[in-house]
Specification:
Blueprint lengths: L4 E3 L2 E3 L4 H11 L2 E2 L2 H10 L6 H4 L3 E5 L1 H9 L4 E7 L7 H17 L3 E5 L1 H6 L6 H16 L8 E5 L4 H13 L3 H8 L7 H11 L4 H6 L4 E7 L3 H10 L9 E5 L27 H11 L8 H7 L7 H9 L3 H13 L4 H26 L19
Parallel strand pairs: 5-6, 5-8, 6-7, 8-9
Antiparallel strand pairs: 1-2, 3-4, 4-9
This protein binds tryptophanyl-5'AMP (TYM).
Length: 384
């Protein structure tokens, strides 16, 4: 079996519960306990996000410190990001959807970093111009989720190089080559941009503290492949006089074919892309989606399906907000009342509805892009 490898630049090997447990140990993160969930639920006035209750967001670092401070009236900010490597798929929306919920629940500022430089330096054959185009498209996709323009700030690495580079040199000064080699697997034949780039992704985890002159906590949502950056961030930030950043970490949305790999842009048939047509979504689900159903219609009617491992049911449950509807589909599918093909059709309809809504939002956001762009002056002098 292929060896499990999870780095920001490569994810391979089988992804199942056992591999996530291995990663938790290897990366030294903690599982989100029911006690932490109770605290979040209380702040969210009884409405826990399904990604938390379903343990899609399953691990963390120092989330308790964020909650301690928040309960004592001290705010924090959120930070997440996207590397504009190409079209976005629905898996990429997992952290952003959840981040929006966190922003709405805690009413806090959010930095979204677009690492166009990363995508130029690492694993890409695209020109800078092409990457800039992808970045613009990705930004619209992200903003179509409905982030609050007053509290959401997009940082594009090339455009905001002045602020980022200034502080990245502080990170670089406190990070050794052996750390970068050990954490990212950088080798002698890699370009030197790969060695420096992690400093750029670490900066937003203290940027608002640095600019405002006020030590602020930062909570970073991401899928577990991004963890290596923030492990280094936790070593470096105290040396610069800032809090270690906190993280809230998710599993991957699996490939359509099941749980052997993550949904990935580089494998067309593993993913549902945000610009897939209604027909393509239907076709992909019918042809590729891993089913928890039985082999024959008779068996399905008699024994029912296993919705928990069924791709279509899982995606349906992420998108559908009405918990009662989700439960009733779960029960029908499990009891054999609903067949696999019907489950796939239901999921395709709800994905298409969701994507159509995003497309409409995207058009509206186009005229407001400038409102979302990071401006350091907004944060100078404690204005948070
Ligand atoms: P990128 O563009 O590879 O991924 C963007 C975000 O999506 C997560 N992700 C997934 N989540 C669920 N299921 C999947 N199949 C899946 N594939 C990717 C990633 O973990 C990430 O959270 N270098 C980063 C950009 C970045 C960033 C950050 C990400 C800059 N600063 C801070 C998170 C937090 C990147 O290339 O992400």
């Amino acid at each position: 079996m292929e060896e499990l490898k999870v780095t920001p630049w490569e994810v391979s090997g089988e992804l199942n519960e056992a591999s996530y447990s291995k990663l938790v140990k290897k990366f030294g993160v903690e599982l989100i306990t029911s006690k932490l969930l109770e605290r979040i639920e209380k702040i969210a006035k009884g409405k826990l996000h399904p990604f938390l209750s379903k343990k899609i967001f399953f691990a963390h670092r120092d989330l308790n410190l964020i909650l301690d401070d928040y309960e004592n009236g001290k705010s924090f900010y959120l930070y997440t990001g996207r590397g504009p490597s190409g079209k976005m798929h629905i898996g990429h929306l997992l952290p952003f959807t959840f981040t929006k919920w966190l922003q709405d629940t805690f009413d806090v500022h959010l930095l979204i970093q677009i690492t166009d430089d990363e995508k130029y330096l690492i694993k890409s054959t695209r020109t800078k111009k092409e990457i800039e185009h992808v970045a613009e498209e990705n930004i619209l996709d992200i903003l179509s989720l409905g982030f609050d323009p007053k509290k959401t700030h997009i940082i594009k690495d090339y455009d905001n190089a002045k602020e980022l580079y200034y502080y990245a040199t502080d990170v670089a000064k406190h990070t050794t080559m052996s750390t970068i080699k050990a954490v990212f697997g950088v080798t002698d034949s890699d370009n030197i941009g790969k060695v420096f780039f992690p400093s750029m992704q670490i900066v937003p985890s203290f940027l608002l503290s640095a600019i405002s002159g006020k030590n602020l906590r930062c909570l970073i949502p991401y899928a577990i492949d991004q963890d290596p950056y923030f492990r280094i961030s936790r070593d470096v930030l105290p040396k610069l006089g800032y809090y270690k950043p906190s993280s809230i970490i998710s599993k991957f949305l699996p490939a359509l074919q099941g749980n052997s790999g993550k949904m990935s842009s580089s494998v067309e048939e593993s993913a549902i892309f945000l610009d897939d047509s209604e027909q393509t979504v239907k076709k992909k689900l019918m042809k590729y989606a891993f089913s928890g159903g039985r082999d024959t219609l008779e068996e399905q009617r008699k024994y029912g399906a296993n919705p928990d491992i069924d791709f279509s049911f899982n995606v349906y449950s992420f998108i559908e907000n009405d918990e009662r509807k989700v439960q009733s589909v779960y029960d029908d599918y499990k009891s054999g009342k609903l067949l696999s093909g019907e489950m796939k059709a239901l999921a395709a309809d709800s994905i298409n509805l969701f994507l159509n809504q995003l497309r409409q939002n995207r058009e509206k956001v186009k005229n407001h892009l400038s409102e979302y762009m990071f401006n350091p002056n907004d944060f100078v002098g404690h204005r948070m």
